[in-house]
């Protein structure tokens, strides 16, 4: 009896020992199923940060609601409901469409809700929720040219066809309209503008967008290519390996679709799209806001550029080999790379090292760093233009090298370089348009927003050009006045 009991105990202990590794492996899995890094970060923060490009009515666009500019659209309404279901607040970050996936990967945003399709290439770098919409591909053409084209995509052979960059529309043109020439641009309004000007024959868009443009502009017509291919599953994009967040969002999408909320959101978006208001009352505040942000960007960039430019100019003139090398490498590298690349590097690079800069801060820093390289060369040439006898005279009077540079050389150099420096400052104002790709709401960014919301591709550009002219002309006149005053005092 005792032997049997001992055998049973031994068998039980051996079973426990054998099952112990399985239990140890299974326990973390059970815990992991309750959360994931992305979901935990959202719950801890209490905010769901949604990235989108608000130039894609009726998906998301700007509209004046109760006297205030707001980002609206049926996907914005969806985002609000998803945030509510997750038990957190909603924060929207607006940026260029081609910067959204990079923003998810670097943690700038939590999810993308911006008419994005789940393609095989994108699924390699981000996860997607279940689909809530499957629009059809269409081609928007000028009505006067419609007789040239049929539903057969081969009718566009030899023609230029536009598509938004990094979208399924671009892929559709590449795969199905290979005999046509693809024109890829970042914003849909720019494509429609080229279509209206006759520079391209058609624009591939999904049917909600193309039908909205055709409804607003009677000079346009929608063609449905055969076979009428769906553009793909429109879904919510999120970081890779986010199973819990994906499950929660899928539950929210199920409720939104099955309850009929999505249809209600679409109806509400269409009403806002075609609300009867004057152009200026609807979009005037966007131009004002964009102008103020442009000026603020330029002011910050000029300060950074002037300070760093002076430092690097002195580095380049230094007898110290190391300082001279640093100055030369910086100036040559920055002048040899586009500001667009530098803006992306600052915006995403700072996030990688744990510095979460806003789009405005990253844009202003990138512009300042870029301007510093050009200012350095301007100041260096100005210093070299001052007669060396000035330095010798100052040193013979007992002034140190630093005081000679500060009190004697630099003041004279500034008088010589003021016109070139003024041109650089004017250029900084205009270059602010480049940083719109990372979501800085400057003037050109807001112009794109107005183009997308109003379906008027040309008129907003005309207003923007006048605003830029007033800004640059005013600064040029002010610098010219300062130059005359300095010339007068130098006599």
Number of helices: 18
Percent in helix? 55-70%
Looking across the biggest beta sheet, what order are the strands in?
Answer: 9-8-10-7-11
Instruction: Compute the number of strand runs.
Output: 12
Largest sheet: 5 strands, mixed
Q: Tell me the strand percentage band.
A: 5-15%
Mean pLDDT: 85
What does this structure look like?
Strand 2 and strand 3 form a beta hairpin. The longest helix has 39 residues. This protein starts with a helix and ends with a helix. It is built from 18 helices and twelve strands. 61% of the residues lie in helices and 11% in strands. By secondary structure, the chain is an alpha/beta fold. Strands 9-8-10-7-11 form a five-stranded mixed β-sheet, sandwiched between helices.
Brief descriptors of the model:
single chain, 491 residues, alpha/beta, 5-stranded mixed beta sheet, 3-stranded parallel beta sheet, 18 helices, globular
Summarize the structure.
The protein is of the alpha/beta class and 491 residues long. The chain is 61% helix and 11% strand. The longest helix has 39 residues, at 279-317.
What topology does this entry show?
Elements: H1 2-32, H2 37-45, E1 47-52, E2 61-65, E3 68-72, H3 74-86, E4 89-94, H4 100-105, E5 111-112, H5 120-123, E6 126-128, E7 137-142, E8 160-164, H6 168-176, E9 181-185, H7 188-196, E10 202-206, H8 207-216, E11 220-223, E12 237-239, H9 243-258, H10 261-273, H11 279-317, H12 321-335, H13 339-352, H14 359-385, H15 388-396, H16 401-431, H17 443-454, H18 459-489
Parallel strand pairs: 1-4, 1-5, 8-9, 8-10
Antiparallel strand pairs: 2-3, 6-12, 7-10, 7-11
Helix pairs in contact: 3-9, 3-10, 11-12, 11-14, 11-17, 12-14, 13-14, 14-16, 15-16, 16-18, 17-18
